[in-house]
Specification:
about 220 residues; alpha/beta; five-stranded mixed β-sheet; 16 strands; about 45% strand; globular
């Protein structure tokens, strides 16, 4: 089955979605791209942006973002948390996400789930936008108050925002002209805080995991 993917550019400043190939070809202000024999190295100014992208492979080879903290950010004390929180609420945040097609099949009376990546995107959100900032502050405050004095993990989920964007800007059709709703992979980033508590049983047993969603409206 052959699929077509027709993305459109987003003008909304709260969230921008750019295909990886376009991002490498025409990087936004504050970024520069250097071609290597095995891929690309992307440089960014940490004073202007917060990049949370792990090294990854695309059709263009290995892509490395310098000055990136990675999708999972670890914090070990109040100073690191305060610094990270300040950056989240004052900079444009860059992430890597994938639009996928989900298929189900039955083989030998067993259901199999297949997720196929259609396109990879660099997604950016404006942390200082009043709506995004309010949601982020509210979610972080709720997380801290609910796990006071403990280590914790909080996932900030952009699935709802991406679904809203995709409904207007991304059109995936099969060769039978059937529209497909994309499934998003890696549509979140994670903050991990490690307290100095000697016996942090709630964290050890996974009771200190939190999640909150960001929306565009």
């Amino acid at each position: 089955m052959r699929d077509t993917v027709t993305p459109k550019k987003v003008s909304h400043s709260r969230m921008r979605v750019t295909e990886v190939e376009e991002f490498l070809r025409e990087p936004p202000a504050g970024f520069s791209v250097k071609a290597l024999g095995s891929g690309y190295r992307v440089h960014s100014d940490p004073e202007k942006s917060l990049v949370l992208i792990d090294d990854f492979f695309s059709c263009r080879g290995k892509i490395v973002f310098e000055n990136s903290l990675g999708r999972k950010v670890k914090m070990h004390n109040l100073w690191e948390y305060t610094s990270m929180r300040k950056r989240l609420l004052s900079k444009r945040i860059y992430l890597l996400m994938s639009a996928c097609q989900e298929n189900f099949s039955v083989t030998n009376k067993k259901a199999a789930r297949e997720v196929r990546v259609l396109k990879q995107y660099v997604v950016s959100i404006d942390g200082k936008d009043p709506l995004i900032k309010w949601q982020m502050e509210k979610g972080l405050d709720w997380t801290i108050s609910s796990v006071a004095g403990e280590s914790y993990r909080v996932d900030i989920d952009l699935t709802q925002a991406l679904d809203s964007w995709a409904a207007k800007n991304l059109h995936i059709k099969t060769d039978k002209l059937i529209k497909v709703k994309p499934v998003w992979r890696d549509a979140s980033f994670t903050l991990k805080y490690y307290s100095d508590a000697l016996f942090d049983f709630p964290h050890w047993f996974g009771f200190s995991k939190r999640n909150f969603k960001l929306s565009l409206t």
